[in-house]
Amino acid sequence: MTDIFLQLLDEVVEQGISHYQQGTHGAVLDLRELPPDQEIILIGDLHTKLKHLQLILEDRQEDESGAEPREPDDSVLQKLEDGRAMLVILGDAVHFESFRSEISDRRELQERLREMQSSLTIMAHIFDLKLRFPDRVHYVLGNHDYLSGRCVKDGVRQGLELKQCIEDRFGKEAMVQYWRFLRNCPVLLVGDGIVAAHAGPAHGLRSLDEVLAVNPAMEEDPVVQSLVWGRFGANFEPEQIHSFLRAIGQEGAYFVVGHSPHLIPKIDFKVEFAPRCFVIYAAGSFVGYAAFKDRQLRFYRVL
């Protein structure tokens, strides 16, 4: 799949933004008019774990109480094919994650952090999904998705490593296309009763218009920075979440992010870090996802 990474990237860029994306550059994935029986599947950080993505796509939604699957063909992928669900990946599909890594040798860990083949592989699969389901598969940007030097893990600037890998493998034109891909991705999902971003709320907003105006590819934009870099307890508290939800007309909505697996217990893939506010993570030993339907948010574990 890596061999056709550039071809798939070109096709995704040519495909452009979904008609569900709103704003000057499509920064907001607007699902407020989606029928309530349409399911919104949310996946947290994958960090190159392609197998975890495949398990989620194959899942038949046996809930955490141990209930039996409803129908043999009721997988997430089947729901996408039948037009019954939307799949939204909340960023950071790329880059091996050192969080809770079992690698003790620092040199070995740094080598693993620099490895970018797995990043190209999982993104190629996501591009393929987006091409198959143009208005049903969406990628909300996370902080690891930018090709800058800002994201540093154990001394490794993974964004720059990915940038160099793409340029060495596919040439400078691929870098332009990847920037166009970033520009075409949303940084915020807004539904009727559900709001999701990679990291946190945008600070000091007066209305949703301020998110609609941003260019998602501009990592340094203050609104983008808050949405892709914010951390609960460091950059925001519950009051900032409530203010943000009020400003965008979604007071009382569920708020779902990735980005902060340190808040999640070791034996889980999710945590409610504030009332109706959740972190989900798909790159750990315990893997699952969230599903919003009929104004209810449910969680499903696959591993």
- What's the level 1 CATH class? Alpha Beta
Low-confidence stretches: none
- The percentage of residues in β strands lies in 15-25%
Terminal-residue CA separation: 24 Å
Please identify which CATH superfamily we are dealing with: Metallo-dependent phosphatases
Based on secondary structure, the structural category is: alpha/beta
Mean pLDDT: 95
Shape: globular
The tally of strands reads 14
Helix content: 25-40%
Q: Assign the CATH architecture.
A: 4-Layer Sandwich
Biggest sheet record:
7 strands, mixed
Q: What is the fold named in CATH at topology level?
A: Purple Acid Phosphatase, chain A, domain 2
Strand order of the largest sheet: 1-2-8-9-10-12-11
Order of helices and strands: HEEEHHEHHEEEHHEEHHHEEEEE
Describe the structure.
The protein is of the alpha/beta class. The protein has helices at residues 5-15, 50-58, 76-82, 106-114, 117-132, 158-170, 172-183, 209-212, 222-229, 238-247, and strands at 21-22, 28-31, 39-43, 85-89, 137-139, 152-153, 156-157, 188-191, 194-196, 254-257, 270-274, 277-280, 288-293, 296-301. Strands 1-2-8-9-10-12-11 form a seven-stranded mixed beta sheet, covered by helices on one side. Helix 1 crosses helix 5, helix 1 (5-15) runs parallel beside helix 7 and helix 6 (158-170) packs across helix 7. The protein is globular and about 45 Å long. The mean pLDDT is 95.
